[in-house]
Amino acid sequence: MRWRWYGHACFHIEFEGGLTIVTDPFGPEVGYRTALPAAQLVTVSHEHFDHNCVQAVQGKPQVWRGGQASEQTRDIQGVRIREVNLAHDALGGQRRGPNTAFVFAVGALTAVHLGDLGHEMTDAQAESIGPCGVVFLPVGGHYTIGPEVAVQVVERLQPNIVVPMHYRTPAIADWPLVGVEEFLALIDAPVRRLGTEASTRAGSLPEEREVWVMEPVEG
Questions:
Q1: How many domains does the chain have?
Q2: Could you tell me the residue range of the domain that residue 86 belongs to?
Q3: How far does Cα 2 stand from its chain's mean position?
Q4: In this model, does residue 139 exceed pLDDT 90?
Q5: 123 Cβ partners below 8 Å, 6+ apart?
Q6: Is 219 within a domain?
Q7: The pLDDT value given to residue 205
Q8: Residue 71: is its pLDDT beyond 90?
Q9: Residue 144, in any domain of the structure
Q10: Is residue 58 part of a domain?
Q11: Would you call 162 helix, strand, or coil by DSSP?
């Protein structure tokens, strides 16, 4: 799988079989001014404006909205995609509503996008997600988990690659989030600072956990 980070919780993910996905698209009012690419599928972890702007994605994608009562599983172009119902806050969603994690599995490689996770991960939730090679993890706090809880989530899920997201960047400098450095100061793992794009496959996952810090696509 190959991915590009467009900022916030929005990634363009391309799988070896050809399926392209955009996660949690945002509109221009968020602060990132980059046009979002075309995709075949859009996943929406929850219905907040900075995660559900599906009209910003080019083409005519299918839209998969999380937050439903039942957790769905679909097989699309060789990728098995599952929902795991979580919450946007530590009160079971009473404050900010539901949140859905999307688990993508192709062959022996599994990745999970945690959306706006707002609470510690329980053993049962981690078991529902299952083993994952890559986790797209919110770390900025305020609206989601912050750095300390993000480390706890990593310990629960035991991924090979951690990709931080949903933290303060120059594009959203006035948002009440912390920057990625606060998470990096707490996590016990080597850090790789990459550009806008990264890729991996099951046979090339690092044996020891790594944190891959991305740069958002600009222009």
A1: 1
A2: 2-213
A3: 14
A4: yes
A5: 156
A6: no
A7: 96
A8: no
A9: yes
A10: yes
A11: strand
CATH of the domain at 166: 3.60.15.10
Give the angle subtended at the CA of 3 by the CAs of 149 and 51, to the nearest 5°: 55
Q: Which class for 70: exposed (0-12), middle (13-18), buried (19 or more C-beta within 10 A)?
A: exposed
Q: Answer whether 56's CB lies under 8 Å from 87's CB.
A: no
Query: What 3-state class would DSSP assign to 161?
Result: strand
> Vertex 49, ends 97 and 87: CA angle to 5°?
20
**Lookup: tokens for 16:** 């070896």
Check: CB of residue 6 under 8 Å from CB of residue 28.
Answer: no
pLDDT tens digits along 185-215: 999 999 999 999 999 999 999 999 999 999 9
Examine residue 65 and state whether it is found in any structural domain, yes or no. yes
Environment class of 29 (CB within 10 Å of its CB; exposed 0-12, middle 13-18, buried 19+): exposed
Q: What is the tens place of the pLDDT at every residue in 92-124?
A: 867 777 899 999 999 999 999 999 999 999 999
